[in-house]
Design a protein that fits this description.
Length: about 170
Amino acid sequence: MDFIRYAEAAASLLNADLAEVDGLVAYLDDRPWLQEKATDRDCMLLRKLQRELRPVFDAGEAGDLPGVTGGLNTLLARHPITPQISDHDAQHLHLHVATGSGSVAEQVIGESLLGLATLVCDLGADRLGVCASATCSNAFVDASPNRSRRYCSERCSSRANVAAYRARQKAGA
């Protein structure tokens, strides 16, 4: 299991529009085997997870370690995960999340929580963030070597830098 990839997917899930199945299908764009199984119920369950997971990212942004760990522990207790060793690539053993019902929502929730929990334990709770742009509130995972990420995307970073440049130019005039 690539826990950073799963954690980043959890942040993307928070930023996804899951009002309709089409939004979930778009979120699962690299996983056609899950896309074909996506249902309205999966969307409902994942919207609930979005509401429950958002405070964890807000706590990470605020440097609130108990908020991050408490939030994740509550979600882990609510959504039990069964990791299993995958040997489909004998040269690269890794963990997968096994789910009881096999629903899309259970799969995504399990991967998200295990990825975030592993990331927080291995790299720290301060790796969960919220975009610093005044016009954006997207969540992100900071996998940078020096913990310097402040924006959810290059687009938001560029917009903020251009706005700051223009403000300096205006102030200097």
